[in-house]
């Protein structure tokens, strides 16, 4: 045993007498598990550069499985050969999980066929790899794209109608067409067929499970081993010892025979009881017998870094050992709380040991061993001593000093005798939370970033300094320093070192991945490009279906306010699988308004009512009160109107329509008193050609207004109409004023209000503190109405559920001879002359043309969406606090966390 190991073991046993251990012992504090492994990787690169071979290194943890995913990621990125020698709990093996999920579902249906089942329990077997035996329909296991479409539809259906029975889910799947729905129908029919059977004995169940796993193996054995890929990551070395998915399925299949004895024994013990169909016993058998097992794999790579459990180190030898997870309550583990054992247990054990006739001698008593704090600590100490005893030259002890809640974590009691808090000692190092940037250090401690062209850096000279880092780490360093521009805290880098770093990055990864990301963060405009082959699309859908002509008015609302907001909504959330319904706006009041669980942007929630509300208004106009003035004037008071509506309204009509009807009734009274005739119609939608694009003006209401003739002829000519008056419904209080931006306050007397979306709010005197969701956006239904309805009497926006005058606002046009009667029609805040209306209409047409042309893109070309840095940078800090310079809308954007641009701008 080496002197290094002697010191480490003496510390653990409280027998260490020196002030500090000999050279070769190092303690490393890292913020979390990943940084522990990254610290190990950094030291391994140095060892390998000095000629150490991988088989001379052992990485130990009390439970190596807890570090498996991190080790796989970090070691593969660094291109280290490795093998994680630990046992995988059966519950983590997909092949076992789909068998368990399938039997759980079958047992549930068998016991209660009509019971409601959540969609997750229904589709979990398909998610985990179930291959239905005896069917040629579809591909098995279900391809990922098809499964995601199924999951979206099932989730949306449960959100709408709640859980259903399996037979109802089968009916739901049968009503839909497509390959994925054929798969779902076959699968659910098979589940019901199996649930109708009974489990006769253990042999039948064992054979059934093996057949299920055999089908899975047949379908997956031809697939490639899945490897992590990415820029400058070559997983080919680690693939040599990677196990195929079918290997684990075979290991699970080997365990299937053990359920036979469990089921047969359970049937013997419950012979007099009603066991039902037997599926409940099958569930327990699979969970108790197979679920408690684990799977281990042998190390077939003799030239790999061994990552092992501490308990597997007794017969290992290595020159260098790294012990992970030396934290309090982890290694040694926290003591299991004691369990009360009744004294009758000891009596029963005694009686069982002595037998009925006291066959044992009187002076021999059975020994009952019960785990205690001392024995548990002793076991972990044995494991620790075995792990440390592997080393011949160096021992590196690591622990994470923060937990998942960022609370401090102490060192293990095995090493606290060394006073590991004394970080000034040479053998203790601490990795700061923000010290994530890969660097190269020379003998004097200078980094390659700060070195000059003549500095000697790293072990093999400045020229190859960056080459000693992993390729992915070089890309990380380059991306950081390129975007830094002196505004982010962290290590600085000289121009020479920056150029040298660029030379040591992969050309394809640099030009295809890193450089575009750097440009996105350093140029005045942020850009996102979407090609026709983007991952957002499937073989059954193309980009034109998502963004092609005609553009909907609310899509232009999003685009005009923020092109990235349009991008996120249009490409990622505004569809259900391959079904595109661009005319429908998800209900923003629901917790999960779309099957992709994306919240609806606030501008849409404020300015657009739900489909239910719009359909109820259509029924009112077309069926219940087609003759507006005559039908509404038939009631004696507003209360009678409300009572009539509640009695005749569609079953799913929102109750808030009653309040809007009160105001409509009052308008009818004033119109009739002034001699104005006003009818209403429902327009199913209009497509308006503007420039090179077109706008789809969705379903809306259009009133026809005719004014009474003058008592005396007008010298200039009086036109009584009829005039069109488009009416659009908005959702939230205040939106009738915000949508056409009638809330605008002039910065000075006589200031002209701009009519372009990007300027209309910037010139408002209240812009600094305004937090409306439609900021920097004119409702483009206003644009469309101005272009489509020439020479109207105005455009009005009506808030749902508001009966007072404040719930209606818009523009009224003082057509010749109509001034005296306009108050009878509507009372809005803005009246304009016909000439002024024409100028406004031309401004809106130009604004709409600009938006539609920018939204167009040629087929086969990349669509680019831009956001100016000035737009993102103004208004709010990284915490969403208004800074007084104008809120840009980022603080309340539902895609703020997904976008990350406000954080990037404010950090710089």
From TrEMBL:
Region (Disordered): 225-244
Protein's UniProt name: PD-(D/E)XK endonuclease-like domain-containing protein
Source organism of this protein record: Halorubrum tibetense
């Amino acid at each position: 045993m080496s002197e290094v190991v002697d010191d480490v073991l003496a510390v653990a046993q409280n027998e260490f007498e020196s002030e500090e251990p000999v050279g070769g012992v190092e303690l490393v504090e890292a913020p979390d598990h990943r940084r522990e492994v990254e610290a190990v990787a950094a030291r391994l690169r140095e060892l390998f550069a000095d000629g150490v071979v991988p088989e001379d290194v052992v990485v130990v943890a009390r439970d190596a499985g807890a570090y498996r995913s991190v080790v796989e990621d970090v070691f593969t990125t660094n291109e280290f050969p490795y093998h994680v020698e630990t046992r995988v709990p059966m519950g983590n093996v997909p092949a076992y999980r789909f068998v368990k999920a399938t039997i759980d579902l079958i047992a549930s249906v068998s016991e209660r066929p009509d019971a409601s089942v959540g969609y997750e329990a229904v589709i979990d077997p398909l998610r985990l790899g179930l291959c239905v035996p005896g069917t040629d329909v579809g591909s098995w296991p279900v391809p990922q794209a098809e499964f995601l479409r199924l999951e979206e539809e099932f989730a949306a259906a449960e959100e709408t109608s709640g859980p259903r029975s399996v037979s109802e889910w089968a009916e739901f799947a049968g009503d839909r067409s497509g390959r994925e729905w054929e798969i779902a129908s076959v699968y659910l029919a098979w589940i019901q067929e199996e649930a109708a059977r009974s489990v006769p004995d253990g042999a039948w169940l064992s054979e059934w499970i093996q057949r299920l796993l055999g089908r899975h193996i047949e379908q997956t054995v031809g697939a490639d081993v899945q490897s992590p890929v990415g820029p400058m990551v070559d997983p080919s070395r680690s693939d040599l010892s990677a196990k195929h998915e079918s290997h684990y399925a075979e290991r699970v299949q080997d365990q299937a025979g053990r359920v036979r004895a469990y089921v047969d024994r359970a049937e013997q013990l419950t012979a007099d009881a009603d066991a039902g169909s037997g599926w409940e016993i099958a569930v327990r058998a699979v969970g108790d017998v197979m679920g408690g097992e684990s799977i281990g794999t042998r190390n077939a790579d003799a030239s790999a870094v061994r990552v092992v459990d501490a308990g597997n180190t007794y017969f290992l030898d290595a020159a260098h050992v790294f012990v992970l997870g030396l934290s309090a309550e982890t290694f040694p583990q926290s003591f299991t709380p004691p369990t009360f054992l009744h004294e009758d247990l000891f009596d029963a054990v005694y009686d069982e040991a002595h037998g009925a006739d006291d066959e044992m001698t009187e002076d021999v008593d059975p020994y009952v061993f019960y785990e205690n704090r001392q024995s548990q600590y002793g076991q972990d100490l044995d494991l620790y001593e075995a792990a440390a005893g592997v080393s011949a030259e160096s021992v590196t002890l690591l622990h994470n000093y923060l937990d998942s809640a960022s609370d401090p974590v102490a060192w293990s009691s095995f090493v606290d005798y060394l006073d590991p808090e004394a970080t000034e000692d040479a053998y203790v190092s601490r990795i700061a939370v923000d010290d994530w940037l890969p660097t190269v250090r020379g003998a004097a401690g200078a980094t390659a970033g700060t070195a000059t062209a003549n500095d000697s850096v790293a072990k093999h000279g400045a020229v190859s300094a960056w080459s000693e880092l992993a390729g992915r780490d070089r890309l990380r360093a380059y991306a950081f320093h390129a975007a830094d521009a002196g505004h982010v805290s962290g290590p600085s880098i000289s121009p020479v070192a920056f150029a040298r770093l660029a030379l040591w990055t992969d050309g394809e990864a640099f030009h295809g991945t890193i450089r575009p990301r750097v440009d996105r963060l350093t140029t005045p405009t942020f850009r996102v490009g979407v090609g026709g082959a983007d991952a957002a699309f499937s073989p059954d859908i193309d980009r034109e279906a998502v963004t092609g002509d005609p553009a909907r008015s609310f899509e232009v609302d999003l685009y005009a306010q923020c092109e990235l907001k349009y991008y996120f909504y249009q490409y990622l959330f505004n569809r259900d699988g391959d079904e595109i319904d661009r005319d429908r706006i998800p209900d923003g009041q629901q917790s999960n308004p779309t099957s992709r669980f994306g919240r609806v942007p606030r501008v849409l929630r404020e300015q657009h009512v739900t489909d239910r509300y719009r359909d109820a208004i259509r029924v009112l106009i077309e069926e219940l009160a087609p003759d507006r003035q005559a039908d509404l004037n038939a009631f004696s008071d507003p209360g009678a109107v409300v009572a009539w509506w509640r009695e005749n309204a569609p079953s799913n009509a929102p109750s808030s329509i009653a309040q809007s009807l009160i105001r409509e009734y009052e308008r009818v009274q004033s119109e009739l008193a002034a001699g104005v005739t006003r009818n209403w119609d429902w327009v199913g939608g209009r497509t308006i050609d503007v420039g090179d694009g077109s706008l789809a003006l969705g379903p809306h209401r259009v009133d026809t207004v005719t004014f009474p003739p003058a008592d005396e002829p007008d010298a200039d000519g009086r036109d009584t109409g009829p005039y069109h008056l488009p009416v659009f419904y908005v959702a939230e209080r205040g939106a009738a004023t915000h949508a056409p931006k009638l809330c605008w306050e002039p910065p000075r007397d006589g200031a002209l209000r701009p009519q372009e979306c990007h300027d209309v709010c910037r010139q408002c005197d209240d812009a600094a503190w305004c937090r409306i969701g439609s900021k920097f956006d004119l409702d483009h239904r206003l644009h469309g109405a101005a272009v489509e309805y020439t020479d109207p009497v105005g455009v009005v926006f009506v808030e749902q559920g508001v009966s007072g005058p404040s719930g209606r606002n818009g523009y009224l046009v003082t057509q010749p001879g109509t001034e005296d009667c306009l108050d009878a029609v509507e009372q809005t805040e803005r009246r304009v002359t016909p000439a002024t209306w024409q100028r406004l209409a031309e401004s809106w047409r130009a604004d709409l043309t600009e938006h539609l042309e920018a939204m167009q893109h040629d087929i086969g070309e990349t669509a680019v969406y831009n956001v100016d840095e000035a737009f993102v940078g103004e208004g709010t800090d990284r915490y969403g606090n208004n800074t007084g310079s104008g809120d840009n809308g980022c603080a309340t954007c539902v895609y703020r966390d997904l976008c990350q641009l406000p954080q990037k701008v404010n950090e710089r």
